[in-house]
Amino acid sequence: xxxxYMPRAFTRLLPVYIFMAVVFVFFAAPLAWxxxxxxxxxxxxxxxxxxxxxxxxxxxLIKPVGGKYAKVYPWMWIVNSLIISTAxxxxxxxxxxxxxxxxxxxxxxxxSAVLNLFIxxxxxxxxxxxxxxxxxxAKLALVNTYHGLIxxxxxxxxPFTLLIADGYFRTIPSVYEEAAMxxxxxxxxxxxxxxLPLATPGIVTIWLxxxxxxxxxFLMPLVLIGDPYLYPASIGIxxxxxxxxxxxxxxxxxxxxxxxxxxxxxxxxTRKYLQRxxxxxxxx
Length: 284
Known about the structure:
Oligomer: single chain
Strand content: under 5%
Helix content: over 70%
Radius of gyration: 24 Å
C-alpha cells in the first residue's frame, strides 16, 4: 500500500472513525462513571476524580437496610433474581424446545395460526395485561409469590424464544431422526439421542436470552411483588432510591456492579454455544 493511498483511505474513513468514537464515548461514559462512583469515598452525581479508593459501598450490601424493613439485606435481592431468572429461563427453554419440535415435525390444521398467535402475544405491550394479571393473581393468591412471577414472566418471554426455537429446529434435517427410527428408536428416543444434541447451541442461546430478559425485567415484579423480602434486584435498586430520603450514589453504583456480574458470568460460560447458536440461525 502506497504512502499516498493510506492518507486518502484514512480521510475517506475519518467520518466513520469519528462516529464510532462518539458512540463508544456515549456508551462507555456512564459505565465509567458507575465504576468510579462505586469506589469513590465521596460518591456523588458529579463526575470528578476521586480523592481515594474505598470498598465501603460494597460492604453496605451485606448490611440490613434501614427503615421499617430493617432485616432486608441487599444481597437477598440478588439471590431472588438468580432464583427467578434461572427458573424462568429453564421453564421457557423446555417449553420452547418441545413446542418447536412438535411444530416442525408434525403437521396439523391451524399450525401457522399457532405461530401467528404467539407473534401477536409478543407484540402486545406488557402494560396492557398488567392490571388484569394483578386482579386475577390476587384472586388465586399468586401475588407476592415466586411461582406467580415466574409464570407471568415465562408467558411473556415464551413467544420470543419459541420463534427462535422454531427457526432453529427447521434447520435440522428430520432424516437423522427417521434413520434412527428405522433402526428401532422411538420418536422420543430419536429426539433425545439425535435431535437434542444437534440443537444444543440453539438451546443454550434460548436459555441465555431468556435468563438475561428475566434478569432485567422490571414491570411485572413491580406490580406483582410488594414484599421487600421477595424483591428481585431490579426492584431492589428502585426501592433503594427513596429509602433514605436521598439518592445514595455509592451504594446504588456498588449494587449495580454486583447486579451485573451474574449475567456477565453466564454469558462467558455459554459464549461458545451462543456463538454457534447464532451462527446456525443466520447461516443455515
